[in-house]
Each structure stands twice: as C-alpha cells, then as structure tokens.
C-alpha cells in the first residue's frame, strides 16, 4: 500500500520527504535535516539558472520546489503515484517558481527528453533495471552534465538493492565519471528513528485511515531497515555522476540542444 499524503503528514517533515535527511549535529531536527539534504544534493548538481533539471521519483515535490525556487532551474519532476502528483500540483499554485515545474505522472523509461541535470533521491533502490536506468540517464544528458543520486546499497545484493561498487561500475560503463560520498548510513538511521517515533506518537490519529495494525507494521518495517543500516547489511551513499565525452556499451550521443 503506497504512503498516502494524509498519512505522510503525521510522520514526515512539512515538505514530505520520504527519504533520508542529513543531520549536521546530534540536535538537528528532522525538518532541518531534510532541508540540509535537499540543499546538499542541489549544490552538488552545480545548477545554473535556466538549466533543465529532471527529478526522478520526485515524491511530493520537495526537491523540485527547492530547485525552481532557490536555484532558478526549469524542473521536470516525475512520479508514478497519483496522490503524490496531486499534492505537488496543489502545493505549487501560489509558489514562486511554480511556472518552472512540470510535474508528471510518468515512469523514467518513458521520459526521453534532453536535460542538463538529474537528481534521484532514494528511488534507485526500487528500480529493477538499474543498468538500463543509468544508461538512459547518460543518453539524455550532455557532455559534462551532472546527475546526483542518493541510494541505499548492500554489500550482498538483497531484493533490488545492489552494492556500492556495482553502482560505480555500472555508472562508469554507462559513460559517467563517478564521485562517492562517505557512508551516510547513520543519517538514514536517524531519519527512520524519527519516522517511528512520529507514527507512534500519532498512532491513534492515523489508525482511522491507515489502520492500527498496518501502522504498527510500518513501524516494524522502519525499525528493521534501521537495524540493517546499523549492522552494515545496508549502507547509503551520495553518488555524483558526470557525463563523459566518450560512450561505452553502445550508449549513443545525446541531443545537442540544451538550455542554460
């Protein structure tokens, strides 16, 4: 069952980031951690005003809103969840930069337009065709184009999660130079701890539309995910991919027409 907007409001930050925050200090709040994460990722993209940014798996639109409002990007934000799209469109009505955001109900496989920058925040883990995804992103970026991806990894592949090295190797084969952060697992653990505490604190309220049993299952799931990260079964990194001039594995040149 997808996370609905009304449920999300009870345990996520006000911008509804269903992804890891970046906690600067032990006292950092979930709200501040999520703002720090969005800023760090968009800064790493090296966005210039007017550049076209693709947000893959945009969720409720937090990063897209920040990119348009604070960086002057022309954003295409895609999601496969109707509820997320409805919220994002409603939230943009009176916002500065709203006219620069094109929210779409669309899969990444069906997006084939040139862009200057790409972000993908804790969505890559859910993709089945990871090699095809990275090759696809390289095709729609120009030489020197940047993609920043926050992703959970696993030293031994589990479910759809793959290792840090596999991500690096696959991206290099697709035509990217790759930079990787230090481990960010502790940040995701703290994010998940906030989620569990917030659901627990509002269990009575969410039970009416989520169901008490399902909400408790969600707590157990987030606790399990946090434990995987604590014990090293999973990890998380911020990957910065820069498109090289040469291509490999038959990846063809992207269209030369770009904004910015």
CATH architecture type: 3-Layer(aba) Sandwich
Written as H for each helix and E for each strand, in order along the chain, the element string is HHEHEHEEHEHEHHHE
How are the strands ordered across the major sheet? 3-2-1-4-5-7-6
Q: Let me know the CATH homologous superfamily.
A: Vaccinia Virus protein VP39
The percentage helix is 40-55%
| Number of individual domains | 1
Largest sheet: 7 strands, mixed
The CATH topology is given as Rossmann fold
| Mean of pLDDT | 92
Oligomeric state as shown: single chain
CATH class: Alpha Beta
Shape: globular
Span of the ends, CA to CA:
40 Å
Strand content: 15-25%
Poorly predicted segments: 247-260
Instruction: Write down how many β-strands occur, each being a DSSP E stretch of 2 or more residues.
Output: 7
Task: Describe, in plain words, how this protein is organized in 3D.
- The chain has helices spanning 5-11, 30-44, 62-71, 82-91, 130-140, 164-174, 185-201, 203-206, 212-231; strands at 52-56, 74-79, 101-105, 117-121, 146-153, 176-180, 235-243.
- It is α/β, with parallel strands linked by helices.
- Helix 5 (130-140) crosses helix 6 (164-174) and helix 7 packs antiparallel against helix 9 (212-231).
- The radius of gyration is 18 Å and the shape is globular.
- It starts with a helix and ends in a 17-residue tail after the last strand.
- 44% of the residues are buried.
- Residues 247-260 have low confidence and may be disordered.
């Amino acid at each position: 069952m997808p996370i609905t907007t009304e449920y999300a409001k009870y345990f996520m930050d006000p911008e509804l980031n269903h992804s890891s925050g970046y906690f600067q200090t032990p006292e950092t709040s979930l709200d501040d951690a999520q703002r720090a994460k969005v800023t760090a990722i968009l800064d790493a993209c090296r966005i210039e005003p007017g550049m076209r940014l693709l947000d893959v798996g945009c969720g409720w639109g937090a990063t897209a809103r920040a990119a348009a409002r604070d960086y002057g990007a022309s954003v295409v934000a895609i999601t496969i969840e109707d509820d997320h799209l409805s919220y994002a469109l409603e939230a943009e009505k009176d916002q500065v930069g709203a006219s620069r955001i094109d929210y779409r109900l669309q899969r990444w496989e069906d997006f084939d337009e040139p862009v200057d920058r790409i972000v993908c925040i804790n969505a890559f883990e859910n993709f089945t065709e990871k090699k095809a995804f990275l090759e696809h992103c390289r095709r729609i970026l120009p030489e020197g184009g940047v993609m920043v991806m926050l992703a959970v990894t696993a030293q031994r592949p589990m479910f759809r999660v793959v290792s840090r090295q596999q991500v690096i190797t696959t991206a290099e084969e697709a035509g990217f130079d790759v930079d990787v952060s230090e481990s960010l697992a502790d940040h995701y653990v703290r994010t998940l701890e906030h989620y569990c505490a917030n659901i627990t604190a509002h269990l009575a309220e969410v039970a009416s539309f989520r169901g008490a049993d399902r909400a408790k299952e969600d707590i157990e799931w987030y606790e399990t995910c946090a434990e995987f990260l604590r014990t090293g079964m999973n990890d998380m990194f911020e990957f910065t991919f820069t498109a090289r001039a040469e291509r490999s594995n038959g990846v063809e040149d992207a269209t030369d027409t770009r904004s910015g």
